[in-house]
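hey m, so remember when u said the tokens were messed up on ur end? i reran from scratch. heres the input so u can diff it against urs
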Amino acid sequence: MGKRSIVLFVALGLAAVSAFAVWQYLAGVADDARKDIQEVEVYRATEFIDVGTDGELARPLIESKTALLEAVVFEGSRILCAGAVVRDSSTDQTVCDNNPSDLETLLDSKVAAGPISAGQLITSDMFVSAAELNTVSLSEAIPENKVAISIRPDDDGVSGGYIRPGDRVNILASADVQMDQFLNVIKDPELRTLILGPGDDGATTPTTTVVPGFGPAPDEDDPLTALAETFPTTIKFTQTVLQDIEVLAVGPDNQLQGLGTGLTPQTGSIIVLNVTPEQAEKIEFARNNTTVAMSLLPKDSPYTPFEARGVVVDDLFNLLDRIQEQLEQFGEALGG
């Protein structure tokens, strides 16, 4: 072996020894530094957790991680700390004693109090009971001098279930109007004269008249009484009783904390309306004595109220035209 080869071999050997010595030194320094660093087990969100998420559903989105002791354990800390990371027998196992630690208890029957970002440390105030989360009262959405009143029309009477908080509606009421009292006035000549006033004369001509579609009228001394006998005692009537009424809530969906149900029909839900005290009285009367329906108004469009005169059967079947014909026939009979 030549001199140069021997020198090269010796140099390589010295370099290896030096590198090993440096590595040992650095490893010792790292070990010394690591002794001064203590880590603890914590919990972090692996994905975004939305507000109101049930704890059971949030559990798969939370996993155990490690963090520096000083970043987790401090006075008043609410960060969940499951315990110290054990590295040797000198590890202090009591470092997390003042921190909350039970994740399962925290999540049990609780919901997320607010949005939790991915990577965020879990704290004991991130999950609360549903009652604590929903501390807002619907009364906060009622303007001054207004009241809220609820009503639950049947499924066919709520515009297909597409009414939502913030919408505006018209309220329609349908009822069977009893005509008995009016007909009693017509049948009683004295009462009729008292209320309606006397006619041209008191004379009446007995007559029997065949009424198209109703058969012969009874043979009476008073033709108006005979006419009254042919009238129906009940008339079905529908009218728009209130217009441009604001909706505060539909079931659990409300203006303060909307559910975002959009175009999903919500039939069978109680609808809460924002009205004046006088309007509330009308709605309560309609709820107890009529069948109520709601028509949905266009959003963000000016509304022009209309004179609601109501609809009766004649508007569909011309029944009143037939009654008018009867009156004319009786008038001709009396005049003849």
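this time it looks ok to me. The longest helix spans residues 3-35. if urs says something different then somethings off w ur setup not the seq
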